[in-house]
Specification:
249 residues, mainly beta, Porin, 12 strands, globular
Length: 249
Protein backbone atom coordinates (compact mmCIF):
# COMPACT_ATOMS: atom_id res chain seq x y z
CA UNK A 1 0.00 0.00 0.00
CA UNK A 2 1.41 3.38 -1.01
CA UNK A 3 0.78 6.28 1.33
CA UNK A 4 2.03 9.80 1.73
CA UNK A 5 3.71 9.71 5.12
CA UNK A 6 2.25 10.99 8.30
CA UNK A 7 4.74 13.37 9.65
CA UNK A 8 6.96 13.13 6.63
CA UNK A 9 6.68 14.69 8.79
CA UNK A 10 4.95 14.95 9.09
CA UNK A 11 5.05 15.37 8.43
CA UNK A 12 5.97 14.40 8.71
CA UNK A 13 4.97 15.94 10.36
CA UNK A 14 5.82 16.24 13.87
CA UNK A 15 4.11 18.67 16.21
CA UNK A 16 7.40 20.22 17.30
CA UNK A 17 7.77 21.60 13.77
CA UNK A 18 6.93 25.22 13.09
CA UNK A 19 5.69 24.40 9.58
CA UNK A 20 3.34 21.47 9.04
CA UNK A 21 4.20 19.44 5.96
CA UNK A 22 0.85 19.18 4.18
CA UNK A 23 2.22 16.45 1.89
CA UNK A 24 2.23 14.17 4.91
CA UNK A 25 -1.56 14.35 4.91
CA UNK A 26 -2.04 12.87 1.45
CA UNK A 27 -2.75 9.23 0.84
CA UNK A 28 -2.47 7.82 -2.67
CA UNK A 29 -5.68 6.03 -3.58
CA UNK A 30 -7.82 5.63 -6.69
CA UNK A 31 -11.02 4.85 -4.79
CA UNK A 32 -13.61 7.17 -3.25
CA UNK A 33 -14.46 7.17 0.44
CA UNK A 34 -12.56 7.34 3.70
CA UNK A 35 -8.95 6.36 4.32
CA UNK A 36 -6.26 7.41 6.75
CA UNK A 37 -3.54 6.38 9.15
CA UNK A 38 -2.53 6.22 12.80
CA UNK A 39 1.04 6.81 13.87
CA UNK A 40 3.22 6.59 16.99
CA UNK A 41 6.80 7.84 17.17
CA UNK A 42 9.73 8.92 19.27
CA UNK A 43 12.36 11.53 18.51
CA UNK A 44 15.69 12.80 19.79
CA UNK A 45 16.10 16.51 19.16
CA UNK A 46 18.24 19.54 20.00
CA UNK A 47 17.47 23.26 19.80
CA UNK A 48 17.88 25.26 23.02
CA UNK A 49 17.99 21.96 24.96
CA UNK A 50 18.33 18.23 24.39
CA UNK A 51 15.08 16.36 24.77
CA UNK A 52 13.08 13.25 23.98
CA UNK A 53 9.69 13.44 22.27
CA UNK A 54 6.91 10.87 22.27
CA UNK A 55 4.20 11.50 19.71
CA UNK A 56 1.01 10.16 18.23
CA UNK A 57 -1.10 11.43 15.37
CA UNK A 58 -4.13 10.59 13.32
CA UNK A 59 -5.29 11.71 9.91
CA UNK A 60 -8.46 11.09 7.97
CA UNK A 61 -8.99 11.60 4.25
CA UNK A 62 -12.23 11.62 2.28
CA UNK A 63 -12.13 11.51 -1.50
CA UNK A 64 -15.03 11.89 -3.93
CA UNK A 65 -14.20 12.28 -7.63
CA UNK A 66 -12.32 15.61 -7.89
CA UNK A 67 -12.87 16.57 -4.24
CA UNK A 68 -10.50 15.75 -1.38
CA UNK A 69 -10.84 16.62 2.32
CA UNK A 70 -7.93 16.08 4.73
CA UNK A 71 -7.95 16.27 8.54
CA UNK A 72 -4.99 15.87 10.88
CA UNK A 73 -4.62 16.05 14.65
CA UNK A 74 -1.11 15.65 16.06
CA UNK A 75 -0.05 15.64 19.73
CA UNK A 76 3.42 15.27 21.29
CA UNK A 77 4.87 15.13 24.81
CA UNK A 78 8.46 16.22 25.34
CA UNK A 79 10.93 15.48 28.14
CA UNK A 80 13.51 18.25 28.45
CA UNK A 81 16.93 17.72 30.01
CA UNK A 82 15.56 14.78 32.04
CA UNK A 83 13.38 17.13 34.07
CA UNK A 84 10.11 18.34 32.59
CA UNK A 85 7.38 17.29 30.20
CA UNK A 86 5.97 19.84 27.78
CA UNK A 87 3.54 19.39 24.94
CA UNK A 88 2.55 20.61 21.50
CA UNK A 89 -0.48 20.33 19.25
CA UNK A 90 -1.40 20.89 15.59
CA UNK A 91 -4.88 20.58 14.10
CA UNK A 92 -5.15 20.96 10.32
CA UNK A 93 -8.09 20.86 7.88
CA UNK A 94 -7.56 21.07 4.10
CA UNK A 95 -9.82 20.91 1.04
CA UNK A 96 -8.63 20.24 -2.55
CA UNK A 97 -10.65 20.62 -5.72
CA UNK A 98 -9.03 19.25 -8.87
CA UNK A 99 -10.39 21.21 -11.83
CA UNK A 100 -7.68 20.03 -14.25
CA UNK A 101 -5.74 16.79 -14.61
CA UNK A 102 -2.64 18.53 -13.29
CA UNK A 103 -4.02 21.49 -11.30
CA UNK A 104 -5.95 21.60 -8.03
CA UNK A 105 -7.09 24.46 -5.80
CA UNK A 106 -6.33 24.21 -2.07
CA UNK A 107 -7.97 25.84 0.97
CA UNK A 108 -6.78 25.18 4.52
CA UNK A 109 -7.05 26.28 8.15
CA UNK A 110 -4.67 25.33 10.95
CA UNK A 111 -4.28 25.87 14.69
CA UNK A 112 -1.01 25.29 16.57
CA UNK A 113 0.41 25.37 20.10
CA UNK A 114 4.08 24.68 20.92
CA UNK A 115 5.51 25.35 24.38
CA UNK A 116 9.11 24.59 23.38
CA UNK A 117 9.12 27.26 20.65
CA UNK A 118 7.13 29.67 22.88
CA UNK A 119 4.14 29.59 20.52
CA UNK A 120 1.02 30.16 22.62
CA UNK A 121 -1.16 30.15 19.49
CA UNK A 122 -0.54 30.26 15.75
CA UNK A 123 -3.60 30.30 13.50
CA UNK A 124 -3.32 30.01 9.72
CA UNK A 125 -5.82 30.24 6.86
CA UNK A 126 -4.69 30.03 3.25
CA UNK A 127 -5.54 29.22 -0.35
CA UNK A 128 -3.85 28.78 -3.72
CA UNK A 129 -3.13 26.40 -6.62
CA UNK A 130 -1.24 23.11 -6.55
CA UNK A 131 0.44 21.88 -9.74
CA UNK A 132 1.33 18.32 -10.68
CA UNK A 133 4.62 18.64 -12.58
CA UNK A 134 5.00 15.03 -13.76
CA UNK A 135 2.80 12.18 -14.93
CA UNK A 136 5.05 9.29 -13.91
CA UNK A 137 3.43 6.93 -11.43
CA UNK A 138 6.62 6.09 -9.53
CA UNK A 139 8.08 9.61 -9.51
CA UNK A 140 5.74 12.43 -8.53
CA UNK A 141 6.63 16.14 -8.36
CA UNK A 142 4.30 18.89 -7.10
CA UNK A 143 4.52 22.67 -6.78
CA UNK A 144 2.21 24.73 -4.58
CA UNK A 145 1.92 28.54 -4.45
CA UNK A 146 -0.40 29.74 -1.69
CA UNK A 147 -1.18 32.92 0.24
CA UNK A 148 -2.12 32.65 3.91
CA UNK A 149 -3.15 34.85 6.83
CA UNK A 150 -1.25 34.27 10.07
CA UNK A 151 -2.29 35.19 13.61
CA UNK A 152 0.48 34.41 16.10
CA UNK A 153 0.87 34.99 19.83
CA UNK A 154 4.22 34.18 21.47
CA UNK A 155 5.07 33.78 25.16
CA UNK A 156 8.54 35.35 25.14
CA UNK A 157 7.17 38.44 26.91
CA UNK A 158 8.53 40.79 24.22
CA UNK A 159 7.15 40.01 20.76
CA UNK A 160 3.71 41.56 20.16
CA UNK A 161 0.88 39.56 18.62
CA UNK A 162 1.56 39.12 14.91
CA UNK A 163 -1.13 39.49 12.23
CA UNK A 164 0.44 39.07 8.80
CA UNK A 165 -0.02 37.71 5.31
CA UNK A 166 2.60 35.22 4.14
CA UNK A 167 3.32 33.40 0.95
CA UNK A 168 3.72 29.63 1.13
CA UNK A 169 5.54 28.03 -1.78
CA UNK A 170 6.46 24.36 -1.66
CA UNK A 171 8.16 21.84 -3.93
CA UNK A 172 7.54 18.17 -3.19
CA UNK A 173 8.69 14.93 -4.73
CA UNK A 174 7.71 11.33 -4.01
CA UNK A 175 9.65 8.28 -5.15
CA UNK A 176 7.97 4.89 -5.01
CA UNK A 177 11.04 2.71 -5.41
CA UNK A 178 9.08 -0.50 -4.85
CA UNK A 179 5.93 -1.77 -3.17
CA UNK A 180 7.78 -1.71 0.15
CA UNK A 181 9.90 1.45 -0.07
CA UNK A 182 8.84 5.11 -0.43
CA UNK A 183 10.87 8.33 -0.22
CA UNK A 184 9.19 11.74 0.08
CA UNK A 185 10.76 15.18 0.46
CA UNK A 186 9.17 18.63 0.64
CA UNK A 187 10.70 22.09 0.96
CA UNK A 188 8.64 25.10 2.08
CA UNK A 189 9.45 28.80 1.72
CA UNK A 190 7.14 31.15 3.65
CA UNK A 191 8.01 34.87 3.56
CA UNK A 192 5.93 37.72 4.92
CA UNK A 193 4.44 39.46 1.91
CA UNK A 194 5.19 42.96 3.26
CA UNK A 195 8.63 42.01 4.64
CA UNK A 196 10.52 39.35 2.69
CA UNK A 197 13.39 39.35 5.20
CA UNK A 198 10.95 37.70 7.65
CA UNK A 199 10.73 34.18 6.27
CA UNK A 200 10.71 30.51 7.24
CA UNK A 201 12.22 27.57 5.38
CA UNK A 202 11.59 23.92 6.15
CA UNK A 203 12.98 20.84 4.42
CA UNK A 204 11.25 17.62 5.40
CA UNK A 205 12.41 14.20 4.12
CA UNK A 206 11.04 10.78 5.01
CA UNK A 207 11.63 7.12 4.32
CA UNK A 208 8.76 4.64 4.63
CA UNK A 209 9.45 0.90 4.71
CA UNK A 210 6.53 -1.51 4.74
CA UNK A 211 6.89 -4.13 7.48
CA UNK A 212 3.74 -6.11 6.73
CA UNK A 213 0.20 -5.37 5.59
CA UNK A 214 -0.95 -1.89 6.70
CA UNK A 215 2.09 -1.39 8.95
CA UNK A 216 5.24 0.54 8.03
CA UNK A 217 8.39 1.88 9.65
CA UNK A 218 8.60 5.65 9.15
CA UNK A 219 11.82 7.67 9.53
CA UNK A 220 11.82 11.47 9.10
CA UNK A 221 14.47 14.19 9.16
CA UNK A 222 13.40 17.84 9.29
CA UNK A 223 15.40 21.09 9.19
CA UNK A 224 13.72 24.44 9.90
CA UNK A 225 15.03 28.00 9.66
CA UNK A 226 13.02 30.94 11.01
CA UNK A 227 14.48 34.40 10.42
CA UNK A 228 12.52 35.87 13.37
CA UNK A 229 11.64 33.23 15.97
CA UNK A 230 10.52 34.01 19.53
CA UNK A 231 13.17 35.67 21.71
CA UNK A 232 15.56 33.02 23.03
CA UNK A 233 14.70 30.45 20.35
CA UNK A 234 17.45 29.64 17.78
CA UNK A 235 16.92 30.48 14.12
CA UNK A 236 17.66 26.92 12.96
CA UNK A 237 16.34 23.68 14.39
CA UNK A 238 16.36 20.05 13.35
CA UNK A 239 14.79 16.81 14.48
CA UNK A 240 15.03 13.14 13.62
CA UNK A 241 11.92 11.00 14.13
CA UNK A 242 11.22 7.30 13.74
CA UNK A 243 8.09 5.29 14.48
CA UNK A 244 5.37 2.93 13.29
CA UNK A 245 2.45 3.88 11.05
CA UNK A 246 -0.79 1.96 10.55
CA UNK A 247 -2.81 2.88 7.46
CA UNK A 248 -6.31 1.92 6.44
CA UNK A 249 -8.78 2.28 3.57
Amino acid sequence: MRIFLLAILLIGSHTSAQILNAESLRKVTDTSGFSGALSASFALKRNTNDFLTLGSDIHLQYKMKDHLILFKNDVAFQKIEDQNFDNSLITHLRYNYRFHDRIAWEIFIQGQYNKINLIDFRGLAGTGPRFKLTTWENYKFYLGTLVMYEHEKLTDGITPTQKNFRGSTYLSFSIYHSESLTVISTTYFQPRIDKFSDYRITTDSSLLVNIFKNFALKTTYRFTYDAFPAIGIPNSQYDFTTGITYSFD
